Amino acid sequence: MSEQAQKFVYDFTEGNKDLKDLLGGKGANLAEMTNLGLPVPPGFTITTEACRVYLESGSEPAALRDEVSAHLEALERRMGKKLGQQDDPLLVSVRSGAKFSMPGMMDTVLNIGLTDASVSGLAHQAGDERFAWDSYRRLVQMFGKTVLGVDGDLFEEAMAEAKRARGAETDLDLDADDLRQLVEDFKAIVLKEAGREFPQEPREQMDLAVRAVFDSWNGERARLYRRQERIPNDLGTAVNICSMVFGNLGPDSGTGVAFTRDPASGHQGVYGDYLSNAQGEDVVAGIRNTIPLAELERLDGASYAELLRIMEVLERHYLDLCDIEFTIERGKLWMLQTRVGKRTAAAAFCIATQLVDEGLIDEAEALQRVNGSQLAQLMFPRFDPAALQERGKGGPSGGVAAPAERIAWGIAASPGAAVGKAVFDSYTAVKWSRSGEKVILIRRETNPDDLNGMIAAEGILTSRGGKTSHAAVVARGMGKTCVCGAEELEVDTKRRRMTAPGGVVIEEGDTVSIDGSTGRVYTGEVPVVPSPVVEYFEGRMHAGAEDADELVRAVHRIMAYADRVRRLRVRANADNAEDAARARRFGAQGIGLCRTEHMFLGERRELVEKLILADTEEEREQALAVLLPLQEDDFVELFEAMDGLPVTVRLLDPPLHEFLPDITELSVRVALAEARKDANENDLRLLQAVHKLHEQNPMLGLRGVRLGLVIPGLFTMQVRAIARAVARRLRANGDPRAEIMIPLVGTVQELELVREEAEQVIDEVRGDTGVDLSLALGTMIELPRAALTAGQIAEAAEFFSFGTNDLTQTVWGFSRDDVEASFFTAYLEKGIFGVSPFETIDRDGVGALVRQAVREGRGTRPDLKLGVCGEHGGDPESVHFFHEVGLDYVSCSPFRIPVARLEAGRAAAEAVGSDSR
Length: 917
Ligand code: ADP
Ligand code: MG
Ligand code: MG
Hints:
Layout: E1 9-11, H1 20-35, E2 43-46, H2 48-57, H3 64-79, E3 92-98, E4 109-112, H4 119-126, H5 129-147, H6 152-166, H7 176-194, H8 202-216, H9 220-229, E5 237-243, E6 254-261, E7 268-276, H10 282-285, E8 291-292, H11 296-299, H12 301-318, E9 322-329, E10 332-340, H13 345-357, H14 363-368, H15 372-379, E11 382-383, H16 385-392, E12 405-409, E13 411-414, E14 417-423, H17 426-434, E15 439-443, H18 451-456, E16 459-462, H19 470-478, E17 481-484, E18 490-492, E19 497-500, E20 504-507, E21 511-515, E22 520-523, E23 528-529, H20 532-537, H21 550-565, E24 569-573, H22 577-585, E25 591-595, H23 605-613, H24 617-641, E26 646-650, H25 663-675, H26 681-693, H27 705-710, H28 714-731, E27 737-742, H29 748-769, E28 776-781, H30 784-788, H31 790-793, E29 799-802, H32 804-812, H33 816-822, H34 824-829, H35 846-860, E30 865-868, H36 876-884, E31 889-892, H37 897-913
Parallel strand pairs: 14-15, 15-16, 16-17, 24-25, 24-31, 25-26, 26-27, 27-28, 28-29, 29-30, 30-31
Antiparallel strand pairs: 1-2, 2-5, 3-4, 3-5, 6-7, 6-9, 7-8, 9-10, 11-23, 12-22, 13-17, 14-21, 18-19, 19-20, 21-22
The structure holds adenosine-5'-diphosphate (ADP) and magnesium ion (2 copies).
Adenosine-5'-diphosphate (ADP) is lined by residues 41, 93, 95, 107-108, 110, 242-245, 255, 280-281, 325, 327, 336-337.
GO molecular function, one term: kinase activity
Cofactor: Mg(2+)
Enzyme class: transferase
């Protein structure tokens, strides 16, 4: 990079919205609005490149100073006054603006250029003494805080003191003299705290502010945020220098924020807030009561009309909901910022379809405007909005079971709505839930010792910690509702109570309701209603019905777009007819994983025990003979529920000890019996077996295909049950499409041995039943060795299904059950990964093996069918990866099927949609 050739400063007229890398989001959009002919105060942007040079070398690029001077002079010529000019000062704001907006970065400094000398010039020009001193005190305050690092509270206190002395209610009641005095006080604070005078040289003010913006890129909170959001550390921030316009010039001036549509519902209209005679962040800082934007029409009809016109221009230009910051200076409207606005999940769906209807975007683009995690959010049960609304209007209403009141607002860490009795320790959570109570576990923060309590609870509430705290991570992993970091709550675990603002005390046993989708916490019981979106997927609500709400109609349409374009098929992980039927309603195109071990639980456990304890060939065969017809019936039901669609049945996978009693419990039982001298023969044998089967690392022990190879007759029994079930369905004129899947294969030899046996059994069933059946046979790829030798394995497999849970465990050497609760939160906090590799596929490691196995498997067998049945199959990001590597299908739990369908559609539409943007 040669510095001479580089341009570090762009006038607002030189940029555009596609230059976010270089100009940051704010700068790029200010330029875009300028070029649209909208009223933006003139200014220029210092590029992220300049920031990068500064961060790398410790000083601004040599050329920067002159370039800034040139742009500043041009601005001064244009405005007809010089920065800080004594009789008529040009003032500017210095505003940070990275590519991604980032909490923890430097705030904006307004009114740069004001000095002891120019303040009276400003007063004279504006004909308003008070205004000039108000602007100056704001400058000293903001500059002191953000550039010189003075504790902002000190200014706030001085301000409060001034108001007290005056008997003033708001800042507006302070007059010019009060404000002049306040400036003196503020400057004294600066001198004392920062050890230097407030700078009286306008250009120095500006340069220091620019440097402070650069430095804020490496502020602690900004760094942490980037690690968690996986924003690269070396992007740097841009700095915008923007000539000031004044909303604090009296009652015909003001400042506001607006959305072009309701970010909560998506409805078109005028949404926003306005504050007259105010500047900058006043409107969001809550210093005075704002008015709804619609009332601006009454105050200043012309500016209001102009604002609506601009909102329309912006929507048509950005083809999306925009949010806006604006200022009115003596009846003249100025645009200070815009960007494509954030919105709720429901609004995202509604807006996407509205924009299609308005002809602004096409269906492929509509798919890019929503995502799977938004859809997932919409599928959680929620608190009855009617009940909450009523309460908002004052007091509990008739429909509410018990009075409930919002007592805190924390971080929405894991969605859902949960109601239960407050408990403050894990032990009580477990005890109460065993006796049938629903509980909410409340802790200051959780740690691995709280795990049992978290499992037992309906929901988890903490007063400390953010989105990657232990509580948040573990709750999300369990799919459990969680609100964390509700800092207004004083949790006292010793006294088993918490205190909310206003002195509300919640004792152990009191009912609380927590909303993990919004972070809100209520006392009492808020009624929970099922999500209308789930009612729709379940077929209990029709999108065409008159009372179907706009959201359901929007979801219906978006799902139709997704299904039309997606290439990935979506199957379900389901083990019984009931789940299979639900999966079908949710749009499953087959079963990708039927875990047969679930058919061995409950009463059948004893039969498995017999099988394990069998000493002789005869005993074993007897045990298998009892299991066979039971399995067969299970399969018949399943194939019937999935008639016409593929069903992949995995042969027994888990280690056998999982079917035996717990080793400690059994040892105690046997020891006690022996002491009483009446040892039970069966228990003794069981204990022996348990000891024999005990493994240090069962996850890496006798399981999967290994079981099939060392326990004679086990896999053949299962294959026979599947084959016979297929024969029965065929005879009943059904259309069973069973596929047999062998788990945990590491080498093709294992698969060949199982295959030989299986084929023999299938032949036998063919002979016995006279039905000409055929069954596909394939394997899971869930060990690194299998992935590495996929070319060989494909010789013996008609399909692969990637078991990405085990593959992640074995590639990372993580035992999932252990690591998620112990050190994963530390890893997330340190930014080692932004999200657990069990949640989203690790593209670089595990993903690389998947890619290679796909290539080599298809190399051997071009028509090899490829799927994934790990939890990643329903994870939005991972679905995109599986689309990219060319799998045929993903399989996930029934509830996640709509999410997978949507994301598969989005992945396919991405290429198409990019043209229309
Ligand atoms: P943030 O990124 O925190 O929104 P901004 O740079 O947008 O910070 O500045 C915050 C607010 O300061 C703006 O919304 C606007 O009200 C005010 N502001 C910034 N620059 C100017 C300016 N040149 N003239 C008047 N007000 C400004
Ligand atoms: Mg802003
Ligand atoms: Mg597995």
